[in-house]
Amino acid sequence: MLSLATVLALPVAVSLYFLWTFLSLLVRQARSPLRHLPGPPSTSLFMGNLKELHDQENNGLVARWASSFGRAFVYRGFMGGRRLMLVDPVAVNYVMSRGYDYPKPDFVRDSLASMAAGYEGLLTAEGEMHRKQRKILNQAFSAAQVKSLSPVFWKKANHLRDIWISIVGSPLAYSTPADPLMGLDVPNRPENRDPEDAAPNNRDSSAVTTSCLPNPFASFVPSKSSPTFPLQTGNASIASATSSSAACKIDVLPWLARATLDVIGEAGFGYEFHSLDGAAEHRENQSELAQAFGVIFSTARKFRVMTILQVWFPVLRHFRTENSAMRQAMATMRKIGMELIQQRREPVLAATEQLVADAEKADNIEGDRSGLGRDLLSVLIRSNVAEVPSQRMSINEILCQISTFLAAGHETSSSSLTWTLFALARNPAVQAKLRAELRSLDIPADVVPSSPLIEQIMQLPYLDAVVRESLRLYAPISTTMRVASVDDVIPVSAPLVDRRGQTCEYIRVRRGDIISIPIQALNKSSEAWGADAEAFHPERWMRDSVSTDVDDILTRQGRRAMVQGLWGHMLTFGGGTPVNGNRSCIGYRFALSEIKIFLYVLVRDLGFSIDPNLEIEKKVNVITRPCVKSEPHRGNQMPLSIYRVPVDTHADNETVQ
Ligand code: HEM
After folding, report:
1. In ligand 1, which atom is closest to the CA atom of 480?
2. What's the confidence (pLDDT) of residue 278?
3. Which residues form a coiled coil (predicted)?
4. Rounded to 5 degrees, what are φ and ψ at 622?
5. Which of 76, 177, 188, 562 has the most CB atoms less than 10 A away?
6. 274: phi > 0 → left, psi -120 to 50 → alpha, else beta; which?
7. CA 227/CA 642 separation, integer angstroms
8. pLDDT at 183 over 80
């Protein structure tokens, strides 16, 4: 029998814990040097400035704050917690290039981990574990290895092109409403509904999405619309402009998400998701793993009060409620990951042993390892049996990498492709010029191009300029967050004046201070990119007769961005250094190659336009996705009109709406 004292002790201990945690956080906040920096007033006791920030991609809030408060200012997070926002290029470069001193905050890692990445995947690992994994995995993303994946990109791009052509040819054939996420309806079944859902019949509208809790796994975009719907009246001009075919309105977002999931499944792991076959009449082809991902992503998109409390009270992270569908989905992911490893283990290890034996026979002590498979799964399997601990990954680490790469590797690319097609639809002259360039290379669709031909696609200057400009204006990951793991001083490009009127040569931070890096706002800074920074203007990247070096061209245009970043003077793919934490995108070559090949295949034969009255907004839930402003109830979508462009159409004659 429990004594009364024991019964009372538990709630008292729990209350004390919460009080203690809360008070120590308040004390820490009060003592943080960030309190001296200027910033906007908090607009909510509980949410700080987060509600306003939620729409920052559409209202230019960060730029306005920066013009009022300077290049480093403080805004308020949950319960008024101070967060440092950096738009100063020197400060941004300093933080981003010190990935291990400035890791991802715990609540970000927790959030990523609970959505399939686990704590041991490349996105979530920190310190030595991350350094080891990055070194092992780099070989699967070398330029040569990515080049060898071109046939997969080509095949999937053509598959999508054929589907769109068949829809354009016969709109009604696809008019059955289908869930864009492979027809999944699992989370909507009453038995699978999450008890925390306020309005179970209106699942997504009850879930507030936010950019404050980065979650790349929240990114499978269950738009509420059918991926295709028949052409509406009023678009007759498109049909007449494209004599040989009518246009069809298609929500390109879910189609591109399917295509890029199929790409990473096959290119990374030799796994067929069959998600492009997932239109209404092919549901039986959808893979088990695709369905599991659907459940995980749609559950992960929800944002609840509990999530906020878990940021402040870490103990609550142990009380995550997962419904049965989520638990089942996680188990399926693990099971299929294990199957993939088992299937490939023997051939990979046999090939490795053979190479070692051959090397010994040839008295080659170093061992020629060039013949080893460098695909992601082979690299992972070999790492599991490596003798040297610094090259070895456990089975759990490998399983985490599989889910990490499947998730991180497809939604970013599909978001990027979606926004590029949107930009082309909104800029018909750019689209026509690009198509003319693409058609200058005559590659038959039914033949996988040779390596030199693929290289020619990669080198097309206008295609390159369009991709750069789109990745600048529509960075799929629009904000990233870091936390100071040590007390530090961050250098700045010019002295700051703090709230006390004192001039500071640097920013002082304390261990535990949270830092926001607004990637998208930096990419659109007029200081770096000029007065037309907000405009889609691929010409800014064009090589000219004086120079073929884009860096040189940008400098001469006075547009040289001051942020270093991994690629193109932008943080679109993040940044970092091997010495102190390279947290930049390991898959950027993969993404660039995939995006260029998809654009080549799709834009060469198909035209894209958009109703000029449609207002498209950015919605951020780690990944930036489009929404139609007047149709928030439909969720994420990008309805474009697609039509065939006859081969004899010349750029000058193209009258695209
Ligand atoms: C347009 C497409 C893509 C964009 C814009 C993009 C962007 C980024 C960014 C900004 C980061 C750093 C995040 C942070 O530090 O907070 C990142 C990390 C990462 N990306 Fe990508 N990514 C893309 C495609 C891909 C692809 C195709 C893959 C894999 C096939 C991939 C795998 C990863 C992984 C594993 C990380 C974590 C790296 C680490 O921490 O060491 N990404 N990506």
Report:
1. 16
2. 61
3. none
4. 65, -60
5. 76
6. left
7. 13
8. no
Structure tokens at 654: 């193209």
How far is the centre of ligand 1, averaged over its atoms, from the C-alpha of 150 (Å)?
19
What is the position in ligand 1's atom list of the atom closest to the CA of 267? 30
Higher-scoring residue by pLDDT: 565, 127: 127
Structure tokens at 2: 């429990």
Q: Could you tell me what percentage of the chain is helix, strand and coil, using 3-state DSSP and rounding each to the nearest 5?
A: 55, 10, 35
- The predicted model scores a pTM of 0.86
pLDDT tens figures, 551-596? 777 776 766 657 888 888 899 999 888 778 889 999 999 999 999 9
CA of 409 to the centre of ligand 1 (A): 7
Treating both helix axes as pointing N-terminal to C-terminal, what angle do 428-439 and 461-473 enclose, rounded to 10 degrees? 140
User: Pick from 619, 649, 531, 520: which is nearest to 209 by CA?
Assistant: 619
What pLDDT, on a 0 to 100 scale, did the predictor assign at position 321? Answer: 60
Q: Is the pLDDT of residue 30 over 60?
A: yes
Q: How far is CA 149 from CA 76, 109, 265, 304, 612, in A?
A: 45, 30, 12, 40, 37
Return d(Cα 165, Cα 159) in angstroms, integer.
10
Residue nearest to atom 16 of ligand 1 (CA): 480
Q: What is the pLDDT of residues 68-95, one digit of tens each?
A: 999 999 999 988 889 999 999 999 999 9
Q: Is 337 in the pocket of ligand 1 (CB under 6 A)?
A: no
How far is it, in rounded angstroms, from Cα 93 to Cα 492? 10
Separation CA 619–CA 606 (nearest Å): 27
The pLDDT assigned to 117 comes to 66
Torsions phi, psi for 481 (to 5 deg): -130, 150
pLDDT band per the 50, 70, 90 thresholds, residue 373: confident
Model confidence pLDDT, tens digit, residues 326-360: 778 888 888 888 988 998 888 888 887 787 777 66
Phi, psi of 195 (to 5 degrees): -60, -20
Are the beta carbons of 266 and 272 closer than 8 angstroms? Answer: yes
Q: Which atom of ligand 1 is nearest to the CA of 584?
A: 12
- Terminal C-alpha separation, the chain: 79
416 lines ligand 1 (CB under 6 A): yes
Q: Encoding tokens for residue 267?
A: 């290119």
Token pair listed for 293: 């991902």
Which conformational region is residue 234 in: left (phi greater than 0), alpha (psi within -120 to 50 degrees), or beta?
Answer: left
- The CB of 586 under 6 Å from ligand 1? The reply is yes
> So where are the chain's domains?
18-110+480-511
pLDDT band at 363 (very low <50, low <70, confident <90, very high): low
Residue 595 alpha carbon, nearest atom of ligand 1: 1
Give the residue with greater pLDDT, 15 vs 143. 143
How far away, in angstroms, is 54 Cα from ligand 1 center?
22
The structure tokens listed for 423 are 């930009």
Based on its alpha-carbon atoms, the radius of gyration of the chain, rounded to whole angstroms, reads: 25
- Cα(57) to ligand 1 centroid in Å equals 20
d(Cα 232, Cα 641) in Å, to the nearest integer?
10
Side-chain-side CA neighbours of residue 316 (13 Å):
15
**132 CB within 6 A, ligand 1:** no
In terms of Cβ atoms closer than 10 Å to its own Cβ (0-12, 13-18, 19+), residue 232 is exposed
* Complex-level ipTM beyond the 0.90 threshold: yes
